[in-house]
Fold:
Amino acid sequence: MIIRTPTRNDAPAVAQLSAELGYPADGEVMDRRLGNLLQQDDQHLRVAEIGGTIAGWIQVTVSESLESGRRAEIIGLVVSAHMRRSGVGRALVNDAIKWAAAQKVESLVVRSNVTREASHLFYVSVGFAALKKQTVYRMTLPDQ
Structure:
C-alpha cells in the first residue's frame, strides 16, 4: 500500500469513492475541487493506492476558532467497500495524525454521521474518544 498525495488524474477514482460515502460528484467536479484544495497549505489530502487502484482517501484541514483553539479535523475519509477492514483506513488516519502533529495543533477531531455505526467503532479503535452528539444544519445560498 502506498499513501500519497493525489493528483488531478486521480479525480475519477476519488469521485467514485466519494459517491460510496454518499456524496456523489462527477470526475470533472472532483478534478476542479482537487485542483483548488491541492494549492492550500491548510489542507492535507492523501490517497491509499494498492496495486495501482485507489482504495481510499482522506482530507484533513486545520482551522482555529475562539472556542476550541487551533485544531485539525478529518473532514473526509472513505475506503472502498471491498477494502474495508484491511488496514487502509488505519493507514490513512495514521498519516493524518503525523501531519496534524507537525502542524502544532491542539487536537485532531472527526465527525461521523450517527447512522455510520461501523465508522464509530473504527474511530474508537484508532484512538479517538466520542465527545458529543450534535445536529448539523445547512442553508443553501443563492447563486451570486
